Fold:
Amino acid sequence: MQEKVQNVALVGAGTMAEYHVRGFRTAGAEVIAIVDQNPEAGRAFAAKWNIKGGTYPDLASLQAAHPEVQAVSVITPNKFHYPLVMESLQRGLHVFCEKPPALSVAETVEMTETARKVGKALQFDLNNRARLDSQFIKKRIVSGEIGRINSAQATWMRRTGIPGFGSWFTSKAMAGGGPLIDLLHMIDLALWFMDYPEPEFVLAQTFDDFINDPDFSGSWGKAAKKPVGHNDVESACHGFVRFKTGQVLTFHNSWAEMIKAEDTYVTLQGSGGGAHIRSVNEQNSCELYAEKDGVSHDQSFRFQNDLDMGRTRAPANFIAALNGDAEPLTRPDEAVKLMRLIDAAYRSAAEGRPVSCR
Ligand SMILES: NC(=O)c1ccc[n+]([C@@H]2O[C@H](COP(=O)([O-])OP(=O)(O)OC[C@H]3O[C@@H](n4cnc5c(N)ncnc54)[C@H](O)[C@@H]3O)[C@@H](O)[C@H]2O)c1
Structure:
């Protein structure tokens, strides 16, 4: 029988880390220790969350002190996902990694292949799939109610919401980009509903209005005391994707754009019906549309407030899946397709033309 996984450590003790602690504990795992290159951040987090095994500057010292650790969560700025995931896998650890998977397709492919080679689990935190309304719609899609999904629209738009103004969030070298790669969740959700088709080509455009205006900063992430450099990522990205299956997707991602208020939704049109799922002001709802006997059948559903958008359920699922108690919420090959789409969107915007995904 396979060994039960219950000892985990966190790599990165910033804003997102508390969701990982809650999720792991919900699933019955113990958070043994912390790795953070900033020892003060690690120690403060460990004290607040009663994590007793200490704070370490790197994975080598963590493993030397705690050989019992079986899995890690990588919760650092995006640039460090690739090196830390690779090292963790090579050290024989299962890995749960924050989104985005990495900065490029090439890195994501290498991470995925390494996980397969060393026989360790690799899941990415695409937490919006764990929302109750997302799970509900997915079930209705799998039951065949919506038929074949032809087209989808994925939107996460903010009026003012640049995270961590002047910090790693707004540095291309550290984050890989702006709202397209950061707010990738609705694109992932649409792809998951569509059974994760292979993207074929993308036409996209980025905009950088307001990206250097602190009045457009959001509440997420700590603004830099000393800016990392100038803010060199997009403030908005809009695009169109055709998949090899003939399905299509339009997406709208922004941190700063002139809309009435923040909006987060996916809409789907299928051969048998339609669906819409929306999260506004922490209120989640969804609708299903069908035509029967010449009559429009619309159903609407409300869900108890899902304050953390699945951020606790996703790490809990990682542990449950490792222990054979649930299906994994995400698969590495999906992360590769997602990054193919994102890479192509940035290339399309840079080259000013539609581009093939590769
Ligand atoms: N799933 C979601 O809803 C969601 C929301 C926000 C952020 N995120 C993602 O979570 C990750 C972390 O974001 P955050 O807001 O917690 O960041 P943060 O800046 O608050 O914290 C990052 C922590 O990582 C530490 N760190 C940096 N480099 C390190 C290294 N090489 N080794 C060890 N520790 C290192 C820092 O000292 C800091 O304590 C990012 O990838 C971000 O995109 C996900």
Remarks:
- The radius of gyration is 20 Å.
